[in-house]
Amino acid sequence: MTRINRIFFSCCICIIFIFGCGEPAKEPKPEKVKYETTLNIGLIPEHDIFHQLKRYEPLADYLSKKIQANINLIILTRYGNIVDNFVSGGLDAAFFGSFTYTLAHAKLDVEVIARPETNLGVSEYYGMIFVRKDSGIRSIKDMKGKILACVDKATTAGYLFPMAYFKKNGVKDYKTFFKETYFTGTHEDAIHDVLNGKANIGASKNTVFFRIADEDPRINNELDIIAESSKVPENGLAVRKDLDESLKKKLKETLLNMDKESDGIKVLNDFGVQRFIETTDIDYVNVYKLLSHIGIKLSTYDYVNE
Question: What is the CATH number of the domain that holds 213?
């Protein structure tokens, strides 16, 4: 072999070594199976869109395989939209908050079938009113002329509860009692707005408050909880009234039996719960009590934020 040939042969060996010994090519992810039936499921904007999708997509994939249907997750821009979009957006089901469920049940006759239960056996949440510890606010009289941050007019913890609390404590018109009242759109933003001084008083659900507190020590160090509501059901899955009965039954049974199957247990763990439990309209009695106290009639309630 001549010197030139030896050099050429050595270069080829080097090229093969460099490109052949790199990271093995990643196998493409298998495409999702396409089914004849499709279900559009709505999600309320409890968290930011990326957090919502990251949490719900594995659950949607699991349900899709079990009930043999394509599941599209649709995140709504605000809580009240979920009622309108059930019709205009062609939704088949949705994970409703407790107040949005009662609205949709009254206006569209949706049927709730299941809700999650945490590893501590908790399947409910409650509303909280909170202030900064250095605000000097300790009671309703200290709130006059201050700025209030609610979440949305279609939330229990972020609207119904504070309105009931103010009425119980003698506030006839919150619009004139407070210097300003505005809606943040998410529970997270209501908490951060009070923490950062944009608002003096805030309202949100306890589960979001304590989740953020685990990530940010300032929440517990700088905020005081001054009132709590009665407990109401955690976000439950409700379906449209005319959904095929066999599909509805299959969806419900799949959710209620996830904790009995290994692949279901993994999805539940990733979702942050231990199981789904059966849920009916009777479970929302505390929401209906709040509505009655405030004087809201669901069939005519205007849930558009002002």
Answer: 3.40.190.10
Chain segment 36-59, per-residue pLDDT in tens: 999 999 987 766 667 778 899 999
- Give the H/E segment covering residue 51: helix 49-67
- Bridge-partner residues for 93, per DSSP? 41, 239
Query: In angstroms, how far is CA 156 from the centroid of its own chain?
Result: 13
Contact assessment for residue 273 and residue 117, using Cβ atoms and an 8 Å cutoff: yes
- Give per-residue pLDDT as tens, 91-150: 999 999 999 999 999 999 999 999 999 999 999 999 999 999 999 999 999 999 999 999
- Tell whether 245 and 277 lie within a shared domain: yes
Q: Which domain holds residue 215?
A: 127-229
- Rounded Cα–Cα distance for residues 302 and 291 (Å): 13
Angle at 289 between CA 284 and CA 292, to 5 degrees: 130
Overall number of domains in the chain: 2
CB atoms closer than 10 angstroms to residue 197: 12
**Structure-token match 């199957």, residue found:** 261
Amino acid identity of residue 290, one-letter, is: L
Contact call for residues 194 and 223 (beta carbons, < 8 A)? yes
Q: What percent of the chain has pLDDT over 70?
A: 87
Name 70's bridge partners.
38
Amino acid, single-letter form, for residue 45: P
Buried b (16+ CB within 10 A) or exposed e, 21-37: eeeeeeeeeeeeeeeee
State the Cα–Cα distance between residues 120 and 139, nearest whole angstrom.
Answer: 32
Residue 71 bridge partners (DSSP): 39
Last residue of a domain, one of 229, 260, 275: 229
Instruction: Indicate the residue type of 131.
Output: V
